[in-house]
Amino acid sequence: MAYTRGTSSNIIVGAAAMFVADTTLVPADVEDIIVAEESVKTTLSVGGAEAANYTNVGYTMNGLELQFQPDFGEVQVDQLLDVAKLFKQGMQVNLATAFAEATLENLLLALAYNDNQLSGSKASSAGQVLNLSAGELGECPVERGLVAVGPGTGDCAESAEIERVYVAYRALSIENVTVSAKRDEASMFEVSFRLLPEDTSGSYGKIVDRTWTAAS
Questions:
Q1: How many structural domains comprise the chain?
Q2: What is the DSSP annotation of the chain?
Q3: What are the tens digits of pLDDT across the range 27-71?
Q4: What's the start-to-end Cα distance of the chain, in Å?
Q5: Please, which residues bridge with residue 86 across strands?
Q6: Residue 96 pairs with which residues in a beta bridge?
Q7: Is the residue at 135 inside a domain?
Q8: How far is the C-alpha of 10 from the C-alpha of 198, rounded, in Å?
Q9: Are the C-beta atoms of residues 177 and 135 closer than 8 Å to each other?
């Protein structure tokens, strides 16, 4: 095979649309959101078969960042000045983004609160209320599944039919969340999700590159 410098269509540029599931996910749920004739964004949006189970966080800032942090142990021996062997003894995966739409619904997701801590409606005189609770001893942390859909690899002429889907089965918001109202900056919620492995498969999730064909 002749030498080639590379394939420019495999360079990905662009942010992803992010959806938060009502509950944690399992591998079978990924099959449900992959529909041959439509984008996953359509499937998870209003009108899609799975739309009722997911919340679209809307605008985000600076895309998403998926970070893998392996932890390796070392075996040192007398005859070498360096280690003789490395072994994997731990793993941590994090997903970070910023919710640019400063709604109470997004703040609830960023704080990993239960849905029952948000009540009312912005359209009513009493308003929409998010109860800022400290929680109780023994309270279970709220885990939710995450799905992000962004540009994939492939020919730019077919970009409308190419996408990359990021799925996290169990995600828990664990970092500080700041709520601000500033004169010269938009209010947004920076959030970092710690991903946990799913019980049956031991997997954190999946990344899927796919090409879908619209129904004619």
A1: 1
A2: -------GGG---S--EEEEESS---HHHHHHH--TTS-HHHHTSTTSTTGGGEEE---BSS--EEEEEEEEEEEE-TT-SSEEEEEEEEEEEEEEEEE-S--HHHHHHHTT--GGGEEE-TTSSS-EEE------TTPPP--EEEEEEE--SS-GGGGGGEEEEEEEEEEEE-S-------SSS---EEEEEEEE--TTT---EEEEEEE-----
A3: 999 988 998 888 899 999 876 667 888 999 999 998 999 999 999
A4: 38
A5: 74
A6: 65, 192
A7: no
A8: 30
A9: no
The owner of tokens 């023994």 is 138
Which residue in the block uniquely carries the two structure tokens 């020919």?
Answer: 155
Copy the structure tokens of residue 132: 């800022």
Q: Which two tokens stand for residue 125?
A: 């005189």
Range of the domain at 173: 17-116+141-211
Please state whether beta strands 205-211 and 118-120 pair in parallel, antiparallel, or not at all (unpaired): unpaired
Asked if 179 and 91 count as a contact pair (C-beta separation under 8 A), the reply is no
Tell me, yes or no, whether 133 lies in a domain.
no
Which stretch of 6-20, 71-85, 147-161 has the lowest confidence by average pLDDT? Answer: 147-161
Do the domain assignments include residue 40?
yes
Length of the chain in terms of residues written: 216
Confidence of residue 167 (pLDDT cuts 50, 70, 90): very high
Domain-located, residue 39: yes
